[in-house]
Amino acid sequence: MSDQPVAIVTAASSGIGAACARTLADRGYSLLLLARSEGVLELASELGGVGLQGSVEQPDDLAALVELALEKFGRIDAVVNNTGHAPGSSSPTGRRFDTDAEAHLLDIADQDWHASLDLYFLNVVRMARLVTEPMKEQGGGAIVNISAFAAREACYAYPASSAIRAALARFTKLYADRYARDGIRMNDVLPGYLDNWEWSDALVDSIPAGRPGTVDEIARVVAFLLSGEAQYITGQGILVDGGLNRAP
Asked: N or C terminus of the chain with fewer C-beta within 10 Å?
């Protein structure tokens, strides 16, 4: 069994996932990284970890990642459930991706609701099924889910994401209540607008902090929530949005 803490990070080839991987590597974690892109293999090699190409939407890929972690290191101390964009999610320029999941609320097709459910919610549920027992056996662990500010205050520009991430918040609370006595914590991080996209001046002006956040700022919050310094924090949704969302 590894003497170093071991962390799994999904959707880790770029953006928030890559920033989390780098930050955790700097803090002494051994890493297991998953992403669709070949870039995850390069990043894992750079950070001295193990990379696996696959998707958080595929249960077999998640199972293979967890099995690899246990075979190589004998433990899993931390999980960062990060994702990409659901089909139809809007880019900052208004371009849409594969389908129209962010169309008019009642025009969203069932298939697009299901795609959002797989990407933003069931990925967490499936990962929890895989890592909970190993974490219980080793005496604890911590899970952080990368959500979005729309989980707290629904954003009509992103209706599918808003609804599904709100459901994730309730699952996180239920899981945290159930497994706190086993030493396993689960929290959500809710980023606002970040510097890995280009945003309009008007949108940036609407952020009280006066700028987008950085992926490194998100990664540092994630690392804190995974650490022993946060051992009394569980079931929470932590906004990291420069003051954009002021809902209670």
From this structure: C
Closest CA to 143 of 133, 131, 126: 131
In the chain, the domains with their CATH numbers are 6-240 (3.40.50.720)
SS3 at position 37: coil
Q: What is the pTM of this model?
A: 0.91
Helices (H), the chain: 15-26, 39-46, 59-73, 110-117, 123-138, 159-179, 201-205, 215-226
Nearest to 195 by CA among 179, 175, 185, 210: 210
Could you give the angle at the alpha carbon of 192 between the alpha carbons of 156 and 227, nearest 5°? 135
Residues 6+ apart with CB under 8 A from 237: 147, 151, 152, 169, 172, 187, 188, 189, 190
β-strand 78-81 against 50-53: which pairing, if any? unpaired
The tokens describing 138, both together, are: 């080793």
DSSP H or E run through 231: none
